Predict the 3D structure of the following.
Amino acid sequence: MKIRSGVAALFATRGNETPLEKNMQLPLLDLSFLNLLPDKTSTGPGADDEPAELDFPPDLVSAWDHAFKTYGFAYVKIPESLTALYRRLARRTAEPASGEGDGGLDECQDETSEAAERDAAEEKNVGARTDLFFSPLDEFFLGCSNEEKMQYCLGKGYGLGGYVPRGVETVAKSSVLAEGDTGSGVGGKKRVLRPDPVETLCLNAWKEEFDAGEMGLVDVERKNIAAGESPPLLAAHGAGSFALYPPSERTIPISPFPREQTGYRSDELLDLTRSLWRQLDSLLQKVMELSATALQLRGEARESFLEGFREGKASNVLRYARYFDEDVHQEQGGEDGSGAQEGPHQSPPAVDERLLYGPHTDYTGFTFLWRSGENGLQCLGSERSSRSSKSGDEQQTQLGCSSCSPAAASTTALLQRNKGLSWVDVHNNLGDDVIVVNAGDLLQRWTNDYWLSNLHRVTGPRGTRQRGGSAPQVGGERGASDAHRGEHSVLYSIVFFTGPHDDTVMRPLRSSELIRAFSDENGIDENKYPVTTSGAHLLEKILKSNQ
């Protein structure tokens, strides 16, 4: 399938927008031309025909490769159909988006009309609801009491889906910054990683059972487990290592999702989530095709790389997160909460710096991130030469491969090995139609360090927080727990974490000439990373973040 030409990777600003920082130089890659709507001519999941290979323009392929081998991050302009869904979820408007992109709402067009009718009916019975809660995410995170939200909580920690209240996840514990930490910070004082001030609603699978009234947590083939056995992902860690499922439990639990069937006030969030998942999954298919082309994978190697991401096989997670930006996430002992202390090779933190989400690398494949406002996302500044010139021992503890380093490293040692690097802002000023895409640990592992899974964190907003609209005025009985926020904007992120099927075996893609040449040039052993599966790797990271 031929992708139309003329799609360039942009390293400039759009219109009168604020320029990107010179020291950042993250590319803005234009994928807005992609069609994410269902293919009406498809013969369905059981079709014998292999998916047609997409033919991307060379400049886009080159820029994609450059972004992830150099920074691990990129800005990506998305199709209007996807932009409309993000806006519908986080910004309530009087009318649906107009213009060419209207059809992009997929089946959500009818759902939007139905939702409007439900809104009108409920407003007549309840009052001026939309004056208080003007988006489906506001409805859930601000409009529900803690007791209501906990109805959708599995009580199993972060990573299994459903609602997770703040105080549960400490994502920095999954990072190399926490590996093997002796508990000593600056001056020998104890380092304390506090839980991240964030609450989340996660969807871990979209299977047939969802539309039938259930929400699957994991792949269908793993739903039935013989009595006395641990789920496959827990086998390597011991059944008692994490209380995910009792050994006697025959069926993996189903995560409830806010919907009328479960007593929720409407199906608007459900309907929009269904449409969003399908379009993001479609985007993933095309992004993986682009990645295979950028890595110069051909034949069986290409198909093997793509197979685990095919529709219905990928291990994806859709996460809605609300940040409590009035909280301050810091470490005791004079450190700034990032694990990166002030020193000769690290810029000192700003006086008002605070962390809403600790430093970490993402666990699996690409992450697609949309934000409702400027939340202070930062990634570690990266110069390719600083990564590729290290000795073999030092390469074991590079910041990008936190999940795989055989030896833990202290904060000071990490900074010494990465002299001159500092945190740089990943801005949110390019519009609702631009998301951030970053590579996760499995992509770095798969490419034997050729692509970078970069360390990043969320420091909290500075300046204008909201890209559009005004903050909800919270008050009254509904949302009373949030009344103290007053006129503060609410920070949301909508994150689509992607990864291959859990049984995918992770070995370096040595068939790629680019990866092979990079490994040989930098003396990186192809056996640097122990062979594992995608699912085992993911569980290991989740276990750490829930400790």
